[in-house]
Write a structure and sequence with these properties.
Length: about 140
């Protein structure tokens, strides 16, 4: 975003209602949480990771998907990211992963975890099993 554009946007905060500012704050918090999870996921990745399908490192960067760097393998032509082949592949709402993990550490039930994080009970059930497969978020990913 251009700095002039950003300034205009920032000035518009003054005209927002309290309710609108609350929404903005929540959105920013969610974005921050997502950034942290992404940083955690990509932290220990090599510059040139290996293809999870054919194990070669002959790849190129292939844009981003779900905010993660995506790669394309030159050998088998398939695309992947740091989570491909892990229990956390294809799960959505990364902004809530960290909070969800905390509820698991606290020993909350599936229902209580879903209430606490504001996710559906079915999602909570799926996450519980996927997260357990990968022990801790930090370990899974690396
Ligand atoms: Zn490959």
């Amino acid at each position: 975003m251009k700095s002039t554009e950003f300034k205009t946007w920032m000035d518009s905060i003054e005209r927002m209602s309290r309710n609108q500012r609350d929404k903005l704050r929540k959105r920013l918090e969610g974005k921050e949480n997502t950034d942290e999870v992404i940083a955690l996921i990509e932290r220990n990745q090599d510059d040139k990771p290996a293809c999870p399908y054919c194990k070669t490192s002959n790849l190129y960067r292939w844009g981003k998907a779900s905010e993660l760097q995506r790669y394309r393998c030159r050998q088998c032509n398939r695309t992947f990211n740091a989570l491909t082949g892990t229990p956390l592949a294809r799960l959505r709402h990364k902004d809530k992963w960290y909070e969800y993990e905390q509820t698991m550490i606290q020993g909350l039930s599936i229902r209580k975890s879903s209430d606490s994080c504001g996710i559906a009970k079915n999602t909570s059930f799926k996450w519980r099993h996927r997260f357990l497969q990968g022990s801790r978020l930090e370990d899974t990913i690396c």
